[in-house]
Amino acid sequence: MTIKTSRFGPATLVTAAFIGPGTVITASLAGANYGYALVWALLFSVFATMVLQEMAARLGIVTGRGLGENLRELLQHPLLRWPLLLLVIAAIVVGNSAYQGGNISGAALGADALFGDIGLIKSWHNAGGINLWALLLGFIAAMVLWFGQYKLIERCLIVLVLLMSLAFIGTMLLTQPDIPALLKGAFWPLIPPGAVLSVVALIGTTVVPYSLFLHAAAAAQKWSQSQTATQTTTQLALRASARDIAVAIPLGSLISIAIVSTAAAAFFGREQTLENVAQLAQALTPLFGNAATWCLALGLLAAGLSSAITAPLAAAYALTGILGKPLDLKQPLFRLTWLVIIVCGVTLASIGVRPLKVIWFAQVANGILLPLICLCLLLAMNYSLPAPYKNSRWQNVLGVVVLLVSLILSGRSLALAFALL
């Protein structure tokens, strides 16, 4: 087996998954409402993501199976197996259908800001009221997945991640962030009044449960281990995966911090309040010029399109794995799953559902569901792997820390939600 040594690999799919319109909106609201005070939550998020994604990748590399297949094998008792598996299916497949509407809507906002003055597109919108961008972006996502080649999907997502990195970081540099305030927010953790749900949402938009299914399956496909694979080749694959995670996940965190910084520079401490990303783009023009607006729009387009590819892909990996189907991107059930999710997303985007409310609810729900997925992964890492590759004591400690923090944040968000009823 030849070990790929590229700096970018399956972890790039994770970055493409969590840097979507949900991240752009959630991070923008955090920056606009609380300035740089919640940057520490993003740093915790990248730490938690790296801990969990390392486990997911190791599980996929060693077993040659995704997280769904390993959960199916781990949970043998029907009273535990089917309720949990059905809950995971509902959370991943149904949840990603809601995410997809936001992904495509967000990408359409970026595309419209960049190319909306084209005469044909303007006349189409005025004539039928149909979101042409939603149809076009849904078609692009479907074409990338239809060919069923992992290498093609990975390369497309690497390009999109690099593109949105340049766009969002470029926007941050143009808005000239307050560096001392940024450093204080990063290394002096505090939760301003009313910011608990924002903290949960920031963590939920970064530590995405479906990314665990995505990463485990993608790592298994990129670094597939046969029965004759030696411990040496497995260790080489694990080291290549660790390098991949160490590059791609922190890059995603830097993008999130750039978005917070941009919104803080444009809105924090000003009388105007932020309600949507389009408003953020409009506010950047008089303050920082057209270049900042164009960079933000380009980043939003790349973020939405990358997530519009990874959300259906992750749901297909999760569903086919839990049902015991092989990791085959051309398998009928696999294709049907991602196709249904893309169609749902295009429909939601085309009928004009406001993406802000849909994405915000989905991100908070994501943070609440995270402890369950964390627990399942920890069980798999301790009971589904041969002894040399099981979690060490410190890996279990780190995993439990992430689990406990996610439980505390989820409890706080549930208490506040019930208090508002």
TrEMBL record:
Pfam families, alphabetized: Nramp
UniProt GO MF annotations: cadmium ion transmembrane transporter activity; manganese ion transmembrane transporter activity; symporter activity
Keywords per UniProt: Membrane, Symport, Transmembrane, Transmembrane helix, Transport
UniProt membrane topology term: Multi-pass membrane protein
Main location: membrane
Membrane-traversing stretches: 36-57, 78-99, 130-148, 155-175, 195-217, 245-267, 287-320, 332-353, 359-385, 397-420
GO annotation, cellular component aspect: plasma membrane
GO biological process, one term: iron ion transmembrane transport
Highest taxon of the lineage: Bacteria
Subcellular location: Membrane
Protein name: Nramp family divalent metal transporter
